[in-house]
UniProtKB/TrEMBL annotation:
<feature type="transmembrane region" description="Helical">
    <location>
        <begin position="274"/>
        <end position="291"/>
    </location>
</feature>
<dbReference type="GO" id="GO:0003975">
    <property type="term" value="F:UDP-N-acetylglucosamine-dolichyl-phosphate N-acetylglucosaminephosphotransferase activity"/>
</dbReference>
<feature type="transmembrane region" description="Helical">
    <location>
        <begin position="208"/>
        <end position="230"/>
    </location>
</feature>
<keyword id="KW-0479">Metal-binding</keyword>
<feature type="transmembrane region" description="Helical">
    <location>
        <begin position="421"/>
        <end position="440"/>
    </location>
</feature>
<keyword id="KW-0328">Glycosyltransferase</keyword>
<feature type="transmembrane region" description="Helical">
    <location>
        <begin position="147"/>
        <end position="166"/>
    </location>
</feature>
<feature type="transmembrane region" description="Helical">
    <location>
        <begin position="354"/>
        <end position="376"/>
    </location>
</feature>
<keyword id="KW-0256">Endoplasmic reticulum</keyword>
<feature type="transmembrane region" description="Helical">
    <location>
        <begin position="91"/>
        <end position="110"/>
    </location>
</feature>
<comment type="similarity">
    <text>Belongs to the glycosyltransferase 4 family.</text>
</comment>
<dbReference type="GO" id="GO:0016757">
    <property type="term" value="F:glycosyltransferase activity"/>
</dbReference>
<protein>
    <recommendedName>
        <fullName>UDP-N-acetylglucosamine--dolichyl-phosphate N-acetylglucosaminephosphotransferase</fullName>
        <ecNumber>2.7.8.15</ecNumber>
    </recommendedName>
</protein>
<feature type="transmembrane region" description="Helical">
    <location>
        <begin position="242"/>
        <end position="262"/>
    </location>
</feature>
<keyword id="KW-0812">Transmembrane</keyword>
<keyword id="KW-0472">Membrane</keyword>
<dbReference type="GO" id="GO:0006488">
    <property type="term" value="P:dolichol-linked oligosaccharide biosynthetic process"/>
</dbReference>
Amino acid sequence: MRRDTVCNNLNYSIKMSDARSKKDDDLTKKSSIVKDETLLDLQSRYKMDEQIWTASKRGFPFNIPLWFVIALALGTPIAASFLCFESGNAYLWKAYLFTLCISVVAYFVTDKAIEQFKESLEKNGLFGKDLNKAGVRESKPPVPEGLGIVIAIVFLMVTILGQVLLDFTQAKLVEYNAGLLATCMAVLLGFADDVVDLKWRHKLIVPTIATFPLLVAYNGVTSVVVPRFLQPFLGSIVNLGILYHIYMGMLAVFCTNSINIYAGINGIEAGQSFVIGCFIFLHNVIEIYLGTSPQIVSQHIFSLTIIIPFIMVTLALIKHNKFPSKVFVGDTFCYFAGMTFAMVGILGHFTKTMLLFFLPQIFNFVLSMPQIFGIIHCPRHRLPKFNDKTYRLECVHNHFTNINAFLRIFGPTNEQQSCNFLLMVQIISCSGALFLRYVVGGWMY
Ligand code: UD1
Ligand code: MG
């Protein structure tokens, strides 16, 4: 009896330890597969060397994983919404949950659509060569370009469905349609830019005209609250009238172009737009929670119904555009994202806060001004230099951009880590923007 029990116990523990070691093996196998996916892709498409790639990676704070950036940016507003939204507000919950569900569906639809359309775009000549990878340009595999068109179409379908199924007032619908028209124009311009490279004057004129429907439909105030220290000279409120409309028009031109020129490393265009979108989401949640007036709450609920689908379709794009990019987003995406931000900012009446979320883009724009306005020669690409001995990006001194400024200050960094670091900077700067808006703004107004 006793021998039997001992034997049974022995067999049991051998089985257990076998199972455990099999599990450990599985885990290591799984983690090495996950770890090597990027490397395998780099090896198969660009013949990159494993040792150089491994050596190109830097330690903290450059080793931030992309999943962390995404989870932090999107997790915060979602957690805040479930903590802060009043449980009795049926209209809010209906609009919010409907938008969340349809946006999750939109994510999967976009993911599938990108898979399907990327080949046809490439076959029809819409592709680019990844400039920051090893190998000579001619022998590099083509990367489908302009996938922004796919996500913009899914986004428009979702928002149109929202118009049908959510109860917006007639006045709001007029504004909403104008906003969608402006977005469509931006997508059209972006796609034209991807197919035939447009001149700078087109990039300035078309977004300006594209905002006209939005500006004529805008029925909000055109006055601004004056900061306390200027009130003795200007009074507490100043009506800017037509100047306010000009400001809104310029905002659209700025938003569309500023994302397009903060570009050139895998994942940065879609990543920055995703982070800004998440912070607009968070700002909406805070404003709904504060509930200053029913009108403000309804403006921010409206903004939620646009920005959440935008965030989710962009997330699907990131999946394919993240380092090493399997698709490029194209100017279509940059203009689409910029116009969507301008639209929610204008129709949600928070353009100043929205501009605060654009601090890195403003910085990049100011740095770029001498080249954009032709004072200094502006080459076709203002990318950093890819060093094929180290697989790191290096600063090019006469390309005045954020990315080059980062490499100049922090030293050569590989493309993946540069992008993730800059996205983290975007998160920190957007958090600073919220501090300025709610703390410093409170002292000034
Ligand atoms: C803007 C920038 C330009 C930058 C380019 C990169 C200005 C005034 N213009 O031009 O300096 O080089 O974006 O997008 O600042 N590409 C990559 N890796 C990426 C993304 C793009 O190699 O991660 C390359 C590909 O060859 C792709 C091309 O850039 O085909 C797309 O460039 P495009 O968006 O047409 O450039 P612009 O928007 O005109
Ligand atoms: Mg571009």
